[in-house]
Write a structure and sequence with these properties.
- The protein is of the alpha+beta class.
- It folds into 4 domains: 187 residues, 3-Layer(aba) Sandwich (Rossmann fold); 251 residues, Immunoglobulin-like, CATH 2.60.40; 116 residues, Immunoglobulin-like (Sandwich); 119 residues, Fusion Protein Consisting Of Minor Coat Protein, Glycine Rich Linker, Tola, And A His Tag, Chain: A, Domain 2.
- An 8-stranded mixed β-sheet has the order 7-6-11-4-3-14-17-16. Strands 21, 22, 23, 24, 25, 26 and 27 form a 7-stranded mixed β-sheet that branches. A 6-stranded mixed β-sheet has the order 8-33-9-10-5-34.
- A hairpin with a 2-residue loop joins strand 6 and strand 7.
- Helix 3 runs antiparallel to helix 4 and helix 13 packs antiparallel against helix 14.
């Protein structure tokens, strides 16, 4: 037993020093260290301004074979009395090739034109100043877009439609279409004062956790697979499905009109689980395009797998609180508990800081596995999301000779360092296989899929708790063995050129190989896929002569160009080059595509706003389902300097000690404290309990229910806690009770707050100042009958 304890103490002496997000400064107070940050939406008190102009967003999806064509319609309406400019940030698939946009005002439809990004912005701003209605679509990330709609006059209904296409790739015989609905809040440690305009979209308003979207959502899918459809499922939403022999029609259930707070996921399987190998050809006016899809062999047996090392990197930041973190725990518990005795493993947990289980990976013994699971189970979630330092630390772990290293990254991806993460992984391709595991109802798929692409791995996403077990099992089988290695495509007499991708990595799943490209002359000859499967040569052939070009395959030109743009963008992030920027820009202009350097702009010819200036409003977004308010910040504000200033110092436990979880938090100038364990000193003696704020029994007059008011105040408890911490800096021994009385007017606003009773006396001035400001900023539902409501709130400080 002593030997076991000594071994454990040497192998896994770790502590989890995790940094939680800093609170927001009170409204009206500026700080030069303020970083880019999302914030909670507070409804404007001006009744003449419609702060929620987006009324609906809907999508119509047509799937033909393996290509999806999507039309997204956004309807903006100004129900106020002042003209508006609406700004809306929304996601799209990372594989989307956005090729068109149009704007409709009444009976007039304006087709958008693709322009270089800066030119499009200039044309839009000029049209806005001239009083013309206009719309501008910009790409902020390959999966994050921003729509600006200018000069929406009172009573206007403006419809903006954008179109994109994408390729659907099956895994284990299952095809999946994903329609992202909401951009999750992004953590950024970049100072707002020096941030470029391209990053300002991060500062977007969000609704509180659990609040439904302020706009309606709808999506309809027409599925024509070309072969009999065996099964269609939608794990994300309640749907109604109608089947035909080789097609299906899927529409949302009427109860899902507020379902725009989570990604829409549709899965289908063809009869017999078949994945068809095939070749699609398209003849254009100037260029011809092809799309090759070839089915790989089955997996090799477990006996042929060499010893493996697994490093699990787990995000335990604030946005992971709740469902995402609980699923992460289950994922790691299932994966770690199934490791073989010949495997080694390590675990790194990160938020604002990170903690590594062991400086070297440890054998997958029952004792080590149990200790790791216990620490993972203790995590609650809190703080920022410092992904880059975590990746660097994991990659610095020494690697044993003769082992195959697999790095599993579990996160929702709510960060803004996608490019830096890609660069880091690409520069360490020889150090392991990378498998990002996105967990959450609306993950940052650009980061998840991008890390998989540059790391030559497979992306996995868990959207809902009920799908976790199946996805985990699928993932476990995937990382057990390679399917096909040393892959080459021989085009023979088929005159192909500019093929993408230029090289094909090892395959670790029953998933077809996709190659895009162009071709000259007459389609002829054979295309042969070659490789090694389970140590033996493998080959599959496709007869080109038997394939006829079809005009219905015109989307291939967009998909090829989008793939080339993504490849150029990856290389450009490694080493910025003006030549590559010009290539991406030219591809966008030539193929009419939205890129980082090209945008769509639609401008009405009529001058509609002749006098006055439009009010700019940012459309608030719902928090993705299952994401807590902690993703935006404890006080609904900026994650500031303290979020990035702390460097963890590891602490060793004595022999035989169990793992401990210490979540460290730093709130603007406060000393580090052990979460839930900090002891305030009083008369030189430590207190036995942490400083905290609690609410006594509320008294609410008629017009609002006590439950409604209680729910809103409970969501603001972390904000009230910030006020207490600020007051403790002035009065370290502050404790007692203060009863506040607030008035809620007919619109749900709080015009008046006063102290009804207090035993804090002069010591509570700082607390009173801060809490009064917090209460005045609250927004409640409009009281029934338009009456004024009085709420009495006992605050207890202990």
């Amino acid at each position: 037993m002593k030997m076991k304890r000594k071994l454990l103490a040497c192998l896994i002496p770790w502590v989890i020093p995790l940094l939680s997000a800093s609170p927001a400064l009170p409204q009206g107070i500026e700080n030069e260290d303020k970083t880019l940050s999302p914030y909670f939406f507070i409804k404007n008190g001006d009744p003449e301004v419609d702060t929620l102009p987006l009324k609906s967003t809907s999508a119509k999806v047509n799937v033909a074979g393996v290509i999806a064509d999507v039309a997204v319609t956004q309807i903006y309406q100004n129900e106020g009395s002042k003209p508006l400019e609406a700004i809306y940030v929304f996601p799209a698939s990372t594989r989307a090739a956005v090729y068109g946009m149009k704007m409709t005002i009444g009976e007039r439809t304006i087709i958008a034109k693709v322009r270089e990004r800066e030119q499009a912005r200039r044309e839009y701003e000029q049209a806005k100043q001239e009083g013309k209605s206009a719309s501008l679509l910009e790409q902020q990330r390959p999966n994050v877009f921003q729509m600006n709609v200018a000069n929406i006059l009172p009573g206007d209904v403006i419809k903006v439609e954008l179109r994109y296409t994408e390729l659907l790739l099956p895994t284990d015989g299952i095809y999946e279409f994903v329609y992202p609905t909401v951009v999750g809040p992004r953590y950024s440690n970049q100072p707002a004062s020096t941030a470029p305009s391209s990053e300002m979209w991060v500062q977007n308003p969000y609704l509180h956790e659990g609040e439904p979207p302020t706009y309606t959502f709808d999506i309809r899918v027409s599925l024509a697979a070309g072969l009999p459809i065996h099964e269609v499922t939608c794990p994300s939403h309640k749907v109604q499905i109608q089947y035909a022999p080789s097609s299906a029609s899927i529409k949302l259930d009427p109860s899902e009109k507020s379902g725009g707070n989570r990604d829409y996921v549709l899965k289908y399987r063809l009869a017999g689980g078949k994945i068809e190998s095939g070749l699609l050809l398209y003849t254009g006016e100037k260029e011809n395009f092809f799309l090759l899809m070839m089915q790989p062999p089955k997996r090799v047996t477990a006996s042929q797998i060499p010893p493996r090392e697994y490093i699990f990197i787990v995000d335990v930041s604030g946005s992971m609180h709740g469902f995402p973190l609980e699923i992460s725990k289950k994922l790691l518990r299932d994966l770690i508990s199934r490791l073989r005795p010949t495997d080694t493993f390590n675990v790194l947990l990160f938020s604002g800081a990170s903690s590594l289980m062991s400086e070297r990976s440890v054998p997958a013994t029952p004792d080590n596995i149990q200790q790791a699971i216990q620490v993972i189970e203790q995590q609650q979630g809190g703080g920022g999301t410092e992904l880059l330092p975590a990746l660097k630390r994991a990659l610095s772990v020494p690697r044993a000779e003769g082992t195959s290293r697999t790095v599993v990254i579990a996160t929702d991806g709510y960060v803004t360092v996608e490019e830096e993460a890609f660069d880091l992984i690409r520069n360490h391709l020889g150090d392991g296989n990378f498998f990002p595991f996105g967990i959450g109802s609306s993950v940052n798929r650009y980061l998840i899929e991008g890390m998989a692409r540059v790391g030559m791995g497979e992306p996995f996403v868990i959207y809902r708790p009920e799908g976790a077990q199946a996805k985990t099992e699928e993932f476990r089988k995937l990382i057990e063995s390679p399917v096909l290695t040393r892959i080459k495509v021989d085009f023979g007499r088929f005159d192909a050129y500019e093929a993408e991708p230029p090289a094909i990595p090892d395959l670790l799943a029953q998933r077809p190989i996709i190659v895009f490209g162009k071709w000259h002359g007459r389609p002829q000859g054979q295309i042969i896929l070659r490789g090694m499967a389970a140590g033996r040569p493998y080959a599959e052939k496709i007869e080109v002569d038997k394939v006829m070009p079809q005009s219905a395959h015109s989307a291939i030109r967009y998909l090829w160009a989008r793939h080339r743009i993504a490849l150029l963008g990856d290389y450009n992030r490694l080493r910025p080059d003006d030549g590559r920027v010009k290539q991406i820009t030219q591809l966008g202009l030539t193929y009419n595509l939205l890129t980082a350097y090209t945008s769509f702009v639609a401008i009405d010819t009529q001058v509609r706003l002749k006098n006055g200036q439009a009010v700019t409003v940012k459309q608030p977004l719902p928090l993705p389902e299952g994401v807590s308010d902690l993703a935006v910040g404890e006080a609904g504000g900026a994650m500031m300097k303290a979020s990035r200033a702390f460097a963890p110092s590891p602490s060793l436990f004595p022999a035989g000690a169990m793992f401990a979880d210490r979540s460290l938090s730093k709130m603007e100038g406060l000393k580090e404290k052990e979460a839930g364990r900090e002891e305030d000193k009083k008369n030189g003696k430590p207190s036995s309990r942490p400083a905290q704020v609690s609410l006594g029994e509320l008294v609410v007059t008629s017009g609002l229910s006590r439950e409604e008011v209680q729910g809103i105040l409970q969501r603001e408890l972390s904000s009230f806690q910030v006020c207490f911490q600020e007051a403790l800096k002035v009065q370290p021994n502050l404790k007692g009770k203060m009863i506040m009385k607030l008035t809620i007017d007919a619109r749900g606003r709080v015009p008046q707050v006063q102290v009804s009773e207090s035993d804090l006396k002069a010591k509570g001035k700082e607390w009173e100042r801060c809490i009064r400001q917090r209460l005045l900023a609250l927004q409640f539902p409009a009281p029934a009958g338009g009456v004024q409501v009085t709420v009495t709130i006992p605050f207890i400080l202990i």
